[in-house]
Write a structure and sequence with these properties.
The radius of gyration is 22 Å and the shape is elongated. It starts with a helix and ends in a 5-residue tail after the last helix. The protein has 3 domains: 36 residues; 100 residues, Endonuclease I-creI (Roll); 73 residues, Endonuclease I-creI. The protein has a 4-stranded antiparallel β-sheet with strand order 1-2-4-3. Strands 5-6-8-7 form a 4-stranded antiparallel β-sheet. About 2% of the residues have low confidence. By secondary structure, it is of the alpha+beta class. It contains 10 helices and 8 strands. Helix 4 crosses helix 5, helix 4 crosses helix 7 and helix 7 packs across helix 8.
């Protein structure tokens, strides 16, 4: 799978009169792929959107709210990789099939942030991997690095923090959709001599990375949501007013 930029570059070489073999050797793109692009070129009305971070004056990805949501998904269940056989890195987000609505939201955010790139769906046991290939993944997600995310430092760049500050709920929503949940707890109380059962909702966020949990909690502080660390890797939101805020802006997975 190749992104639109790679496709455009290959077709430009074809237009220069170069042979498919020489283009393939120069770019690493298969001759079959180049031949298929010749037969079915991309619509001329489709304009490539340049990477916001690679411009002479680097800016923020657009739309910013979609990026904030996607950043939350990436920090939770996302992975960037580039196998030796591929010239372009890929972003993979694994999402449970129990929540098709979350999968659709994730796909929509990928299409919004990467309008020139196809979004692939890979079926796995009980889940789907959503994938997009782009040369600019590291530009947009500088948290990428060797090893697992909980084994290295995760710190937002200044421009990322500005986006999260402007769209905190989208960031929280992405984190909950990846590594969080809304559940119903229950307890019993003695009332009028009788023990009655009471149910109450709460949100949980679970992640092994201290840094990612700190980002989650710091953002909750910004939107006036009270939280509690209930286990080594768990963050709980249980107070009635805070749950109401979460319900209004995040809601249960769907």
């Amino acid at each position: 799978m190749y992104d639109a930029e790679t496709r455009q570059q290959a077709l430009a070489l074809v237009a220069q009169g170069r042979s498919l073999s020489s283009i393939s050797k120069h770019t690493g793109i298969s001759r079959a792929a180049i031949r298929s692009w010749q037969a079915c070129p991309a619509p001329q009305s489709r304009h490539l959107v340049p990477c916001a971070r690679c411009r002479p004056a680097p800016g923020a990805p657009d739309p910013a709210d979609s990026y904030a949501y996607l950043l939350g998904l990436y920090l939770g269940d996302g992975c960037i990789s580039r196998p030796p056989q591929h010239r372009t890195a890929s972003l993979r987000i694994s999402l449970d099939d129990a929540w098709p609505g979350v999968q659709q939201e994730a796909a929509a955010s990928l299409r919004a942030v990467f309008p020139n790139n196809a979004v692939g769906w890979v079926q796995k046991a009980g889940c789907h991997d959503l994938k997009v290939y782009s040369k600019h993944l590291i530009c947009l997600f500088p948290q990428h690095g060797p090893g697992r995310k909980h084994e290295r430092r995760i710190i937002l760049e200044a421009w990322q923090q500005e986006i999260v500050d402007a769209h905190p709920w989208e960031f929280v929503r992405g984190l909950i959709h990846s590594d969080g949940c809304r559940i119903t707890n229950w307890t019993t109380r003695l009332t009028g001599g009788q023990r009655k059962r009471y149910e109450y909702p709460r949100y949980f966020f679970t992640n092994k990375s201290d840094d990612i949990r700190k980002l989650f909690c710091h953002t909750l502080d910004k939107v006036s949501v009270e939280w509690t660390a209930t286990a080594p890797y768990n963050i709980s939101v249980a107070r009635k007013a805070s749950v109401a805020l979460m319900d209004a802006h995040v809601g249960p997975k769907h």
